[in-house]
Amino acid sequence: MMNFNEIAKEVLEIEAAELMLAANNISTFDLEKAVDLIYNCKGKVVVTGVGKSGLIGAKIAATFASTGTSAFFLHPTEAMHGDLGMIAKGDLVLAISYSGESGELIQLLPHIKRFDIPLIAMAKDSKSTLAKYSDIFINISVTKEACPLDAAPTSSTTLTLAMGDVLAVCLMKKRDFKKEDFASFHPGGSLGKRLFLKIDDLLRKDNLPIVSRETKIKDAIVAMSEGRLGNVLITDENNKLIAILSDGDLRRALMQENFSIENSALSIATKNPKTIKEKEMLASDAITIIEEYKIQLLIVTDSENRVVGVLHIHDLIEAGIK
């Protein structure tokens, strides 16, 4: 019976060994020249390759694009049928072929050089056709594929992908690419939301459950149910916030012997609840306040302590702010 854990361990060890071999030989790569060439590129980095190399190339292009290097993937066959026009003066081509002899890619090379476009090649052989056309050659050779037949691209594609990451990270360091820069390329991601989404973007401002200081508990319960926030805001005659009645306050009051729904809601409410005035505050900072004060509802008021809106913890969670 096959032991798949042993097989998995062997695959990972083989690929890890190839990565470590490349790491130990990194000084033999023209890495600094490649990074400088991409860094000084005035146009876009065009990544190209076929088969598995093409799939890896598409991921490398995506990584470049999300880390500050303008890039896109171009399939060699599509390039030969019209899409070559996507490459312009000032661009740079990163071509990937493990053998360095992929037919579709080789056909493209003379046209790239005809436009005087710089070419960085990733292949296993410095004597390959792709390498000979290149301005900079990056060796992605491996001693062994993880495939038991030593045939299917496994270790080699892992190393190619890793070398793409090497270039991307080196470029990030060279550009001093910060967390805020990354977030600007990922505004819909969790990091982008934490860095850009503000309280005002999530604030509930309309139809808030607000009652006066004279309101009885029975009427406050109705307002709480209709407001669907689990809370009622209590204001004075000048519409200034003076208290908040939560469902927790209500449950605790129910345990008191003298409880009556005819009593004033203010009598069982929390006086001087936590409020903020900075509606431009980041939503990520708001959830820190909510967690610190162990509250569900954060109230935003103006300079006169009038209610501007409220932010419920559920609004933050639904927006992906955690």
Automatic annotation (TrEMBL):
Pfam families (alphabetical): CBS (PF00571), SIS (PF01380)
Alphabetical keyword list: CBS domain, Isomerase, Metal-binding, Repeat, Zinc
Site label Catalytically relevant, positions: 52, 104, 145, 186
Keyword Metal-binding applies: yes
Keyword Cell division: no
Domain CBS intervals: 203-261, 269-322
PANTHER family: ARABINOSE 5-PHOSPHATE ISOMERASE KDSD, PTHR42745
The name this protein goes by in its record: KpsF/GutQ family sugar-phosphate isomerase
